[in-house]
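Example record

Each entry pairs one chain with its bound ligand, DGJ.
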Amino acid sequence: MILLSYKYTIRINIHLIRKLFTFNYNDAGMKHLILLIIFFNVGFLQAQQMGSKLNIQPGKLWNDSRGERINAHGGGVLYHNGIYYWYGTHKLQGLSEAKHADGGIHCYASKDLVKWQDMGMVLNLVKGDDAQDLAYECNFDRPKVVFNAKTGNFVAFFKLYLKGFGVETGFVGVALSKSPTGPFTYSHKFLGANSPNGSGDFAMYQEENGDLYHLAVRKPDKAFVVGKMNEEYLLPAGQYVVCSGILEKTEAPSIVKRNGTYHLLASGSTGWDPNPARYFTSTSLTGPWEYHDNPCSGINPINGLGPEKAFGGQSTFILKVQGREDAYIAMFDVNKPDHPFESRYIWLPVDIRNNQFSLHWQDAWSLDAFKAHK
Ligand code: DGJ
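Structure tokens for the complex follow.
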């Protein structure tokens, strides 16, 4: 809508300017009127541009501060020393998911969550050596970065299917850096969930005391499990436990804790296709988790999809906004498996009532949706 009126306003202005120069108006009043209309139109365009800079526009093309499309899929956001870092999988242009479009981890930085500066690739897949775990054409999905205050390491976790081995066995890959903007060095992989087949989609949850948990869908039975990581965040510390109450085949988990309650937003299991969001709450990571109604409402006008398909998106992360009261953003990917480079993002503010999260579609919104801390 905004885009249409923007283009339309530009066209009117071009038309008026032509008129001003091609016709020889004797009538000075008419000339002034045309100049006045142009003047107002330019003001309108400027106001629109300023507005769109302050806005998050779910589902729309989201460019970085240089005007390049943001390429960080299945990602998450880390807040560190006053800056948000958005990490996601870099999708290679021109390749489909079937042709292995993953290129590594791309990082962006922002202070306001709207304008993102490209910090470049912080981990690259390896070309020309198929023996490497990170060989090109492996499957590299859903990277999440956590800071370990004890070791001073930024630790990147990602879903890793080795090149040529299919998706029956899913590793968690681990890479380390001393800086949030990398470069990250690949360290090792592990099979999580106490399963010889490892795990699939996952979330990393960090408690206030620094304890880190790996929550994941176990392979091959697709139960949802949680296990604590060791102090260095490098390997699981012990046994995983099934999260009671979380439905089987729950994918795309994202989690936050608010006032002692964990909120877990996830999806069902339909490959790259969207399905209804799943939402659970619990006061313990192992459960019992309570399953709630679909938290989504409204329609994404870009694809006509609503709660039955999570607006066409799949969850990836819940971001806690700093300096605002009770402010969380639910991050989704709009997957396009034939052209993953063109996949987009849906970020929506979380509405909280009676300790329950809900997500209402919005074409555009700003952080003013949340109250600032006093
Ligand atoms: C669902 C996951 O959530 C996606 O990230 C991706 O791994 C697809 N499965 C692949 O089918």
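The first strand starts at residue 73 and ends at 80.
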